[in-house]
Design brief:
alpha+beta; Alpha-Beta Plaits; DNA polymerase, domain 1; 5-stranded mixed β-sheet; globular; DNA-binding
DNA sequence: TCTGGGGTCCTCGTGCGG
DNA sequence: TCTGCCGCACGAGGACCC
């Protein structure tokens, strides 16, 4: 039995949820974004995209491109609720679902009598129940499914074999392939590779020479639309973090420590809520010249106590002593592994002497 | 043009113990 | 006792994704 994978993606998810609550804004350019001087666009409605506004663009620039855009601050609890409703319907249709964030998922349709009809029905259900529009791609693996779902957004429905995907996207830039970002695309261009067809046809030895023994073959396979067809339902988190970008750079170390402690408090509340504890505590510091530095320390026993996380984070910050004004600071806890629950004893034992 | 927040995964260097 | 090798854990940086 051949594998059939679908990728389902809600169109302009955050913006669409906002439009459901404020139907009077329908047809107008809507941007979901924070409001600070350094905010970036989280999602733009398709009307805003017509002006060249896109995700991750500085909001100030988006407003220059589209001055009449309506700015809406993100409301994550609402998006989580909408996402849960969608994923509930998805799970009612298919057993094997790999959720990839709030607005997308891979579905294993292998063995279904009529995969296409099932997906058409699911899309209709999602629209009727939640008001949201989804795009779907179907293929023999996750890569084909994903690229297919992106191909005709919004409300796209694209079914492709691997060979059809190769033919259809042959002339597109490698950047279209998930996992190939700006840096990799630039390096490929230096090798004279500017299309997916060229990537697929490239000498594997040349790719391995340029990108290494793992990434080289991986890129070659992507160029021919070979990819994983395994839908993995459960993805355990491996780290949790909180970070903040200041509206104005902070040079004062005492003030940085205060921010760090506040982030540690938020982080530990999250860790405790999720019943997670980790052994590695790390800080992240981004300076005003955009250099990003991380410092980490691994302790003997897992912790999610704010006194402990906060103290290690402060020590890491003092040891680094940022040499320039800081624009972003963050704290992270990782290495959740093991079932050992933190206790006051272990937490105290793990404190540095 | 002036770049968020929360993640995952990979690579490379280094120190350490067997 | 010394040296080389190997695997592992850890730390740091970076690319990438939504």
């Amino acid at each position: 039995m051949s594998t059939v994978i679908a990728h389902l993606d809600i169109d302009a998810f955050y913006a669409s949820v906002e439009l459901l609550r404020r139907p009077e804004l329908r047809g107008r350019p809507v941007i979901v974004s924070g409001s600070g001087p350094r905010a970036v666009v989280t999602t733009a409605s398709y009307e805003a995209r017509k002006f060249g506004v896109g995700s991750a663009m500085p909001t100030a620039r988006a407003l220059r491109l589209c001055p009449e855009a309506i700015l809406i601050p993100p409301d994550f609890p609402a998006y989580r609720e909408a996402s849960a409703a969608v994923m509930g319907l998805v799970r009612g249709t298919v057993e094997e679902v790999e959720v990839m964030g709030l607005d997308e998922a891979y579905l294993d349709l292998t063995g279904l009598l009529s995969p296409r009809a099932s997906m058409r029905r699911l899309i209709r259900q999602i629209k009727e129940t939640t008001g949201l529009t989804a795009s779907v791609g179907v293929g023999p693996n996750k890569l084909v499914a994903k690229v297919a779902s992106d191909a005709e957004k919004p409300a796209g429905f694209v079914v492709l074999t691997r060979e059809q995907a190769c033919a259809r996207f042959a002339g597109h830039p490698p950047r279209l392939v998930p996992g190939i970002g700006a840096k990799t695309a630039e390096r490929l261009e230096q090798l004279g590779i500017t299309t997916i067809a060229q990537l697929g046809a490239a000498d594997p030895d040349v790719l391995a020479g340029a990108f290494g023994p793992r990434q080289g073959p991986w890129l070659s396979a992507r160029g021919r639309f070979h990819g994983s067809a395994t839908v993995e339902p459960v993805r355990e988190a491996v780290s949790e973090s909180r970070e903040t970008t200041f509206d104005v750079d902070v040079a004062d170390h005492a003030e940085l420590e205060e921010h760090l402690h506040r982030l540690a408090e938020q982080l530990c509340r999250g860790l405790q809520k999720h019943e997670r504890a980790g052994r590695t505590i790390a800080i992240k510091v981004r300076l005003d010249d955009w250099t990003t530095v991380t410092r980490a320390r691994t302790i003997a026993h897992p912790t999610n106590e704010v006194e402990h996380v906060g103290q290690v984070a402060r020590e890491l910050l003092r040891e680094y002593a940022p040499p320039r004004p800081v624009r972003l600071i963050g704290v992270r806890v990782a290495s959740f592994g093991g079932t050992e629950q933190p206790t006051i004893e272990t937490a105290q034992l793990a404190l540095p002497m």
